[in-house]
Input
Amino acid sequence: MSAPEDNLPPVQPPSASFLMQLFVVPLVIVVAIVMVSLMFNWLAHMGTKPEDLVTQLNKVNPGSWQKALTVANLLTDHKHEDLRRDPKLAEKVAELLEKELEQGSADPERVKLRVYLTLALGLFEVENGRETLIKAATQQKTPVDVEVRKTALETFARRADFSPERCDLMRNDQELMQAVEQAAKASGESSEEREAANELRLRAAYVLGVIGGDQALQLLTGLASDPEPLVRFNAATALARLGERSAVPRLYEMLEIYQQKNDDGSPRFDAVVQTSVISSAIRAIEKLAEQDQTIDRAELADAIQSVLDSPDISSDVRTGVEIDARTALQHLGK
Output
């Protein structure tokens, strides 16, 4: 039994897209994919299938973005693993997204529809729809298109994380790498444009860290000197994941984030961000030491120990990072 066309329950989109773990700064970068079960119970009662929802999306209405989000949610369910490998269904989602990209409406409902169609398409484990995802990652007819671009970049990271073979394919895909490079070099004139560009570079750093390869290393090296701190930090954690010693100065900067102040002397970053950044730096240092067995582990350990010993760090931040720090110190032999 299919769901009624226009009687979807009220649903709010995820507040910060979808978080991905690994080496990124938690709560700072928002990258694809966790389970979102906003409507699973309702869908179970209605007997809704992803294929039915995709068919319904041919008729766009104000609730269409909810259907697209539901398709993405269902595709994350292990019960629908076969659908993630269904080229015909992927093609149908790609066609829907292609139409929306061509239409390019700035209406908030249509922007959300493009975002969740992009997310859904990125969940497929087939190459069908590749060109449409690349288009979603690069097209910006209006300022709001940056939301779609960010989501497309996030799906690249998830796809690259499937397997080493997929990473090889992606790093040799020049169109895809050009799309990521475009995001890595994003800039803007107005404050709004600059903020959007920062978000794109932030995600590009993550994608490059997952994909790896010579081109990724070159771009990450540039991003490690980005004027935006959080972009630098993401690039550094990506370089550390790839075993690059050039990450070390930026990792030390991350460890000392609690020392960064505003002009009035107040902390530049709140305790939550400080904790996230320092913990990410500690984990990145561990990863780098695993990748590079000849690196000076004592120096890395001393840098971590200095955080715990600093009189300038707040007790909340120290408590928040202490477990990660003690674990890393043990692994580093201190």
